[in-house]
Amino acid sequence: MTQVKTKPANNQSLPRLGASPATSASAGAPHGRAPSADRPLDEVEAVARIGSFSLDIIAGRWVSSKGLDTIFGIDAAFERSVAGWASLVHAADREVMVAYFTDEVVGRGRPFDRQYRIVRADTGAERWVHGRGALELDGSGRPARMLGTIADVTDQRTAQDALIASELRYAAIFEGTAESILIAEVATGRLRWVNSAACAMLGYTRDELVGLTVHDIHPAADLPTVLDRFQAIADGRTTMARSVPCQRKDGTVRLADIRGSQAVVDGVACNIGFFTDVTDLRAAESGLARQFRERAEVAAALARLQPGPSAEATAALICDELLGLPSIDLVAIFTFLDPEHAFVLASAGPANEPLVPGRPLPVARARYLYERAAQGPWAEAWRTRPEDGQYGRQIAGLGLRASAFAPIRNGEGLLGVVAVGTRDEAYARHLIDHLPAVGEFAATAKALLSGQLERGHRDELVRVRVGRALAEGGLRPVFQPIVDLASGEPVGYEALTRFADGTPPDRMITDAHSVGLGLELEVACLAAALDASESLAADCWLSLNASPDVILHSSELAGLLRDRSRRFVIEVTEHVAIEDYQGVRSALAGFGPAVSLAIDDAGAGFASLRHVVELAPRFLKLDISLVRHVDRDLTRQAMIAGLIQFAARAGCQVITEGIEEQAELEMLRELGVQFGQGYLLGRPKPLPVASGNRATRAGNNRPPAGRRANGRSSPEVFPARGISGSSRPMSKMRGGSPRPSAPPG
Fold first, then answer.
1. Please, is 155 exposed, middle or buried when counting C-beta atoms within 10 Å of its C-beta (0-12, 13-18, 19+)?
2. Which of 397, 529, 539, 681 has minimal CB crowding within 10 Å?
3. Is 214 part of any domain?
4. What is the CA radius of gyration of the chain?
């Protein structure tokens, strides 16, 4: 049991509380209880959760009411002494409470008034209580008795703690927000609370602001309007006041949008204002910035326009619309092929402006715009750069003060740039200081132009690539031998093309046709092959790939073949559609008897074997897909055997492509295939110079026509037979007309 010593106000010693056997004057009550009170009093105590006590300070004993016994959880057997009371006090509060009772109450004669925690004797539950007591003194002025009450305030304390925690949370939120928050009394306008953001906005410390009134933080000239809005928020007539002038401590004025609401704070009606500093925003919206916003709205309306028939026409419409806006004196849309090559797509402006559609920009200017466009829209004062040369001087001669630029992009990169310029000095400053929503112009241009620009950009790149292929050294022919499978001797060569930039032949030819350069490129490939073939053995035929378009435009091909003694085979792939079989037959007939026809890729093409039926070729070249692994595939063997029989009935001979394995070669021989080509028999290679050709090597020992070097008769692959209804040239260029592709290999 805790031993408690007390010292009365006159400093005379008292016996230890809790050690004396003496009892109070009321000790006659059973178990230290006060005489039974009226029942209604017990009920009141129970409802109010309050109890009463009487403490004999000299004896150190106390008696309690039924209500107090309930609060403490004690019965009649509990020792009602100061030490007993101390044992009920929570261990964390016990030392403080005993010292408070001994020194402050008994020692200095002060009333007992303290909240503290107890631990109920019966359940061990922790409760908060509020004890109050008044001292009675004896004739010598010493504390003799204390009468008081103890109330269970656990619920109130819990609610208070929750409220404090909530207030702390809200305070943290209010302090952490970027918005300025001020709470002002409705009746007086006095500021009761402000957060740090409000202090920063108004230039005061918190202590300086709290206590000021609404009158003190707004300019005097604006007070009538400000107070009217303040009252409107208090009355619930509005929750927003826009662009309210707020006066800082240093006298400067900031504009704030205020969202307001009503609240009762500590019983006082208040307005809570959330201030957003909009000074810079309002400045940006004023004057020329507002005017430019209207222009951006016009630009957005342009997005609803339908694109013109071409990128140039669409760009011209956009430029005309933009030029009609106030203060805009020059508009242009540039399109880029690469970082150094840009062209004027369209322009609008003074009659003498140098931005002529279709004209390229100087390389230095194109490079500058391309690099800046990577950083997004920008504006700048116009200045003549020496590297821009005559172009820069011409633009400067227009009197432009500033320009703004916005990129037009797609997923792959920069398609173009929209440029606007002004001669207006004030508007020029605006362009530089406050970059306008020029991106709206780019968005409009992208919506209308992106598809057309992408196609035009791609087509122009293709034209450049094909142009390089057509230039000297841009392509070279290679030749792959076609071998008599029985003798192993070459009987012909297929001319193929390799491009210097590494583009696959089929892709290059297809792309060339997509931009109208297909015929020119095909003819160039044929011409190069024919020139290079002069060093081939004279008794070997030359296979040339040609699309139906090249055959139908037969004058070019006929001119290339004219006055040549070699036998030629024109290969047409089965993958390519032919709409005019009669026209192809007529064109082939015009090439003469030295030209035969082969249908390439038979068995895997556009119209099955219709080309064979319609054109009656001399050769049927089986697709590589039939040859691959033919030695181990009965289905392929059966298909090839069937096609051999079909070819024999149709009066043509079979050539197999793509022979790469010895087992494939042996199976094809077993099936009766006469001719073949593939990596196993010879890869495509450029021909040696004329001095190293086979005819020169063979010298005067070259066998006569119809004989091979091994002494055996070479097959009669070109019997004297009319062209009509027989050999018809076609290409190995993949894809449907008019987009043929180059042969594989």
1. exposed
2. 397
3. yes
4. 52
User: pLDDT averaged over the chain?
Assistant: 80
CB 68 within 8 A of CB 53: yes
Pair (246, 371) in one structural domain: no
User: What is the longest distance spanned by two Cα atoms in the chain?
Assistant: 160
Is residue 711 included in any domain, yes or no?
A: no
Least confident of 137-141, 420-424, 720-724: 720-724
Which helix (H) or strand (E) covers residue 280, if one does?
helix 279-285
> DSSP letters of 48-63?
HTEEEEEEETTTTEEE
Phi, psi at residue 670, to the nearest 5°? -65, -35
Q: CA 248 to CA 615: how far, in whole Å?
A: 95
Looking up residue 238, the CATH number of its domain turns out to be 3.30.450.20
Q: How far apart are CA 307 and CA 533, in angstroms?
A: 51
Answer whether residue 716 shows pLDDT above 50: no
Residue-wise pLDDT tens digits, 304-344: 666 788 888 888 888 887 787 777 889 899 988 888 988 89
Record the tokens describing residue 637, joined without a space: 């063997």
Tell me the DSSP string of 424-488: -HHHHHHHHHS--STHHHHHHHHHHHHHHHHHHHHHHHHHHHHHHHHSTTSEEEEEEEEEETTT-
Whether residue 162 lies inside any domain: the answer is no
CA dist 525 and 477 (Å) reads: 7
Residue predicted with more confidence, 692 or 117? 117
Predicted pLDDT at 394 = 85
If one counts the domains in the chain, the total is 4
Contact criterion met (CB below 8 Å) for 394 and 355: no
Task: State residue 601's pLDDT score.
Answer: 81
Q: pTM of this prediction?
A: 0.46
638 contact partners, CB below 8 Å, separation of at least 6: none
- Cβ atoms within 10 Å, residue 43: 12
- Tell me what the mean pLDDT of segment 5-25 comes to: 37
pLDDT band per the 50, 70, 90 thresholds, residue 677? very high
- Give the helix ranges, DSSP H, for 135-195: 154-176
Q: Which of 4-13, 107-116, 169-178: highest mean pLDDT?
A: 107-116
Distance CA 467, CA 461 (A): 10
CA 241 to chain centre: 37
Closest by CA position to 406, among listed 446, 376, 375: 376
Residue 637 shares a structural domain with residue 488: yes
Say how far apart CA 373 and CA 14 lie, in whole Å: 95
Contact status, residue 449 vs residue 315, Cβ threshold 8 Å: yes
The edge-to-edge listing of strands for the beta sheet with 61-64 is 61-64, 50-56, 143-152, 126-137, 112-119
Could you tell me if 105 and 199 lie in one domain?
no
CA dihedral over 535, 541, 544, 550, signed as positive or negative: positive
Distance CA 135, CA 222 (A): 61
pLDDT digits (tens, 9 = 90+) for 347-385: 988 877 888 888 899 999 999 999 998 888 888 888 888
SS3 assignment, position 707: strand
* Stretch 233-259: mean pLDDT: 91
Q: Is the pLDDT of residue 11 over 50?
A: no
Helical pair 634-650 and 662-671, crossing angle rounded to 10 deg: 50
Tell me the C-alpha distance between 230 and 730, whole Å. 90
User: Which pLDDT does position 644 carry in this prediction?
Assistant: 93
Same-domain pairing of 127 and 36: yes
Residue 149 belongs to what domain range?
30-153
What is the C-alpha end-to-end distance of the chain, expressed in Å? 107
Region 97-117: what's the mean pLDDT? 92
DSSP classification of residue 190: B
Q: Are 35 and 44 in contact (CB under 8 A)?
A: no
Span 588-637, pLDDT tens digits: 888 888 999 998 887 665 445 788 888 889 999 998 889 999 999 999 99
